[in-house]
Amino acid sequence: MTLDKLPTGWSGRITAVRGEGALRNRLLDMGLIPHTVVTLQKTAPMGDPVEIKVRGYELTLRLEEARYIVLDDASLAETGEEA
């Protein structure tokens, strides 16, 4: 599953960051590296962008960018927190 498909309020562990060049490097520089847990906090009213929590801070990504983040299906869990 990719990050753009994660339901609001759910968490998952990153297994891979796809893409090439500057985009991939930008995502990695923002802390989106394999084995990191991310939580989808909010989705904008029209569905794009999304706000995630990663490494203790909130980060906003466009859905196009979120499609490059691959999550481990076995790690998915609902956080139980209100958005």
Question: What string gives the helices and strands in order?
Answer: EHEEEHEE
Number of helices: 2
Instruction: Give helix % range.
Output: 10-25%
Assign an overall shape: globular
Structural class: alpha+beta
Strand residue percentage? 35-45%
Integer-rounded radius of gyration: 12 Å
Largest sheet, strands/sense/barrel: 6 strands, antiparallel
Low-confidence stretches: none
The overall average pLDDT, rounded, is 90
The first-to-last residue Cα distance is 21 Å
**Secondary structure tally: strands:** 6
Description:
- This protein has 83 residues and is α+β, with helices and mostly antiparallel strands.
- It contains 2 helices and 6 strands.
- Strands 1, 2, 3, 4, 5 and 6 form a 6-stranded antiparallel beta sheet that branches.
- It is globular.
- The protein starts with 9 loop residues before the first strand and ends in a 5-residue tail after the last strand.
